[in-house]
Design goal:
The chain has 201 residues and is mainly beta. Helix content is 11%, strand content 29%. The protein has helices at 2-9, 86-91, 95-102, and strands at residues 28-32, 35-38, 42-45, 48-49, 63-66, 74-77, 115-116, 129-132, 137-143, 153-154, 157-158, 167-173, 178-183, 195-200. A four-stranded antiparallel beta sheet has the order 11-10-13-14, with no helix packed on it. A hairpin with a 3-residue loop joins strand 2 (35-38) and strand 3. It starts with a helix and ends with a strand. The structure holds copper (II) ion. Copper (II) ion binds at residues 150, 184, 186, 189, 194.
Length: 201
Amino acid sequence: MFRRIAVVAAVATLAAAGPAVAAPKANTITAVGGMDVKLNQFITDAQHWDADTYTVKSGATVTLKDKSKMGQPHSLSLVDKLPKTMAQIMGCEPCGPLMAAHQVNEETGDVGVKLVNVGGDGFDAAGDSIYLPPKGKVTFKVTNKGSLTHDFKIKGKKTVRIRPGKTATLKVLFPKAGKFGYLCTEPGHAAGGMKGTLTVK
Ligand SMILES: [Cu+2]
């Protein structure tokens, strides 16, 4: 449910003409807003682009900015028809194929193809899409130079068990600043000192 809403909220269109509702910074498209949850009351998804309509010159460079608060990925795609009704939004016809074209690995968050360009050169045809990875994603590269097997766990995510001399990577999202504990989950290792605190600023 959350994922679906997040994807839909990221669909936008570039209109070549028409009066702008707001006046965003020239040639800049910015993702803003966040989500608000009050248990048993509401879930408000206020993630959005900073305008409904953008006007850009042919050939101009358009800058995408992510100032949203959720630390989630966004994508900006050109589509023929914007979904309008709730059913169309939930069903979001172009979303699935566009996300598939980006080859996003939902396990790791890796994006195979950040830029989908189905038309000619440039961002100019329905189906063209840009994937914006979230801010605050950190990849840990953990190398085991000891003689025992270890792993590395932080923020509920854990590497595989790393044998001596081997390396593993772990991608973790840190949308907000804070202090996060990390440790090795092999029996007795954390108690023996294989733990610490990571500060995200
Ligand atoms: Cu260990």
